[in-house]
Amino acid sequence: MIVSTRGEYALRLMTALAGKEGFSSLKDVAAEVGIPHKYAENIMTALVKAALAEGSRGKNGGYRLNRPPEEYSVAEILEAIENSFSVTNCIRDGGCPRAESCPTLPIWRGLDETVRAYLSRYTLKDLLKS
């Protein structure tokens, strides 16, 4: 699995929001974490669609988390942003037509499970402590 820039930026944005109370201006948060504002808008739209954040318009609007930071896993955030979370093409989108006879498939499934388990152990609260 290669985490894209979009995935890295999503983690930065969510971590920044985790350290704030109430709604925060995306312009300010994006500047704070070094992400272009337009790119941050695109990412936040996906995070809102995935119900990981909430947006509000108006003078005191912006974005905030939907739940406490300790309830978000890094895996959950990356899964919402990345097109695929799998480590190889052969286990993405229903798998490979050769899956039943492939001698390497168990290796890729095991690696996929290991990566997913590792990223699931960390929360936004953990990232705030770093």
Relevant terms:
single chain; Arc Repressor Mutant, subunit A; 130 residues; mainly alpha; 2 strands; two-stranded antiparallel sheet; 6 helices
Sequence of secondary-structure elements: HHHEEHHH
- Describe the sheet with the most strands: 2 strands, antiparallel
At the fold tier of CATH, the topology name is Arc Repressor Mutant, subunit A
Mean pLDDT: 91
CATH architecture tag = Orthogonal Bundle
CATH homologous superfamily placement: Winged helix-like DNA-binding domain superfamily/Winged helix DNA-binding domain
Number of domains: 1
Distance between the termini: 23 Å
Task: Classify the secondary structure makeup into a structural class.
Answer: mainly alpha
Shape: elongated
Poorly predicted residue ranges:
none
The Rg value, from CA coordinates, equals: 17 Å
Description:
There is one protein chain. By secondary structure, the chain is mainly α. The protein has one domain (5-129): Orthogonal Bundle (Arc Repressor Mutant, subunit A). Helices cover 50% and strands 6% of the residues. The protein is built from six helices and two strands; from the N terminus they run αααββααα. The chain has helices spanning 5-18, 26-33, 37-49, 74-81, 105-120, 124-129; strands spanning 53-56, 62-65. The chain has a two-stranded antiparallel ribbon with strand order 1-2. α1 crosses α2 and α1 (5-18) crosses α3 (37-49). It is elongated. The mean pLDDT is 91.
